[in-house]
């Protein structure tokens, strides 16, 4: 019986019924559906690639294949892969993308950069001295597709660095490094480039808008500016790649999209109305939540609902899917059992909303000037060889199972 089942599964059923990747995806009211009309819920993890080196993290400790296998073992179906606009600026303005060798040298210094680069090659022998950063993204996307995991691209930063602060120059349109035109060009480039990736389903326009410390050079920090910039970028992305879903993120570190579900006044006579978009069935809302010291799940729940999840409800003017693309907590203590983690583990699957947890890492190439930075929020240990905490991972597996139901 078992033999027969596995024979059937291996041979005929997958190709007929579950022909990954079933692209393109679209939305249908509050659901995301694949090309066969089946519901799809994002269940995944963030894989950072937008820090100083601008290469997906972990490759000095592991092969891409092995990292992807770990994601697969959790039964996750998507990776939120982050990138920096600076990579595309280099491609467009500075004579092409830089090699991974140069990228490591630039971010870590020549000597340490060389050491780390050699470790990357040792673990990932398909790369060589001509391999560029974007070719590493290509390789990550190819392996994810091979293991039947979808890619959601996320523009995390303009300048490649750890994110996010109000003083990091990447907070808002016109901030020190946040050139709105280059941002749109970068999104256009990645949306187009991603057509080569067989499992790209979506792109997030920008991670965590926030009010910049530096006043003056920035555009006004408000919903009106948000609307103008975000809809212009969405138009560009949709023209570059009409197949992919476009994730819209909100203000205050993407903790609020409160005026969007009800099509509230955004200022200057602007209102967000799905019916105004030719590609309304490609738009998804994303929110982040880091209320790590919460003491009441009820209050978290009503906060998340009012800040945007109520777009899931049939009563919303703009009924649409909402995905929690970031939440996370230390894997080095019992946070997985606290109010915050337990609450999200319960309510997000109950709402049948998608999610991607922060973060697939054990350590970073470099963060905030410190190389080989230990990431205690990372699901993996420092050397990316195994889980940081089996208890925390079991909690995450419970959330996966609840969402798959
Ligand atoms: C998607 O899931 C919801 C809730 O379970 C259900 O009502 C809806 O019919 C599903 N859609 C499809 C196409 O299966
Ligand atoms: C070097 O790496 C690139 C990108 O990873 C690949 O396309 C190319 O075939 C490789 N060249 C050699 C000689 O292996």
Pick out its properties.
405 residues, alpha/beta, TIM Barrel, 8-stranded parallel barrel, two-stranded antiparallel ribbon, 15% strand, binds 2-acetamido-2-deoxy-beta-D-glucopyranose, signal, GH, Glycosyl hydrolase family 5 protein-like protein/cellulase, hydrolase activity, hydrolyzing O-glycosyl compounds, glycosidase
Description:
With 405 residues, the protein is α/β, with parallel strands linked by helices. It has a single domain, classed as Glycosidases (TIM Barrel, Alpha-Beta Barrel). Helix content is 36%, strand content 15%. It has helices spanning 2-11, 13-17, 64-73, 85-93, 100-108, 110-123, 133-146, 180-193, 223-240, 251-254, 297-306, 339-350, 390-404, and strands at residues 26-28, 31-33, 43-47, 78-84, 150-157, 200-204, 245-249, 283-288, 322-326, 354-357, 363-367, 370-374. The strands form three sheets. It has an eight-stranded parallel beta barrel, surrounded by five helices. Strands 1-2 form a two-stranded antiparallel ribbon. Strands 11-12 form a two-stranded antiparallel sheet. Strand 7 (245-249), helix 10 (251-254) and strand 8 form a beta-alpha-beta unit. Helix 8 runs parallel beside helix 9. The radius of gyration is 20 Å and the shape is globular. 47% of the residues are buried. Residues 1-12 have low confidence and may be disordered. Pfam families: Cellulase (PF00150).
């Amino acid at each position: 019986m078992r033999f027969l089942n596995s024979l059937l599964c291996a041979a005929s059923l997958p190709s007929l019924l579950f022909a990954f990747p079933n692209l393109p995806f679209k939305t249908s009211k509050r659901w995301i559906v694949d090309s066969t009309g089946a519901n799809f819920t994002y269940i995944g993890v963030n894989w950072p690639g937008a820090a100083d080196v601008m290469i997906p993290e972990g490759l000095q400790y592991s092969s891409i294949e092995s990292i992807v296998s770990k994601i697969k073992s959790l039964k996750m179906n998507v990776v939120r892969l982050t990138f920096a606009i600076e990579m595309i600026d280099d491609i467009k303005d500075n004579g092409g993308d830089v090699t991974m060798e140069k990228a490591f040298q630039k971010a870590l210094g020549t000597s340490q950069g060389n050491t780390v680069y050699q470790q990357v090659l040792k673990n990932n022998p398909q790369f060589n001295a001509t391999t560029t950063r974007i070719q590493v993204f290509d390789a990550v996307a190819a392996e994810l597709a091979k293991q039947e995991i979808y890619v959601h691209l996320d523009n995390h930063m303009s300048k490649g660095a750890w994110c996010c602060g109000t003083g990091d120059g990447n907070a808002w349109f016109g901030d020190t490094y946040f050139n709105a035109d280059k941002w749109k060009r970068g999104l256009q480039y990645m949306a187009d480039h991603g057509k080569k990736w067989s499992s790209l389903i979506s792109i997030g326009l920008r991670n965590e808008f926030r009010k910049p410390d530096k006043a003056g050079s920035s555009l006004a920090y408000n919903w009106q500016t948000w609307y103008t910039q975000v809809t212009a970028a969405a138009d560009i992305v949709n023209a570059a790649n009409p197949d992919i879903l476009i994730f819209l993120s909100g203000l205050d570190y993407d903790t609020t999209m409160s005026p969007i579900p009800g099509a509230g006044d955004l200022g200057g006579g602007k209102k967000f109305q799905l019916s105004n978009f030719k590609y309304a069935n490609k738009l998804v809302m994303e929110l982040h939540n880091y209320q790590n010291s919460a003491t009441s799940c009820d209050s978290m729940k009503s906060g998340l609902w009012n800040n945007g999840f109520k777009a899931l409800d049939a009563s919303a003017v703009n009924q649409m899917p909402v995905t929690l693309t970031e939440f996370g907590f230390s894997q080095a203590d019992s946070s997985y059992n606290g109010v915050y983690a337990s609450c999200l583990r319960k309510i997000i699957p109950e709402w049948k909303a998608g999610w991607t947890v922060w973060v697939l890492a054990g350590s970073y190439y470099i963060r905030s000037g410190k190389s080989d930075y230990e990431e205690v929020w990372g699901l993996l240990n420092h050397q990316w060889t195994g889980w940081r905490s089996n208890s925390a991972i079991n909690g995450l597996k419970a959330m996966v199972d609840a969402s798959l139901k």
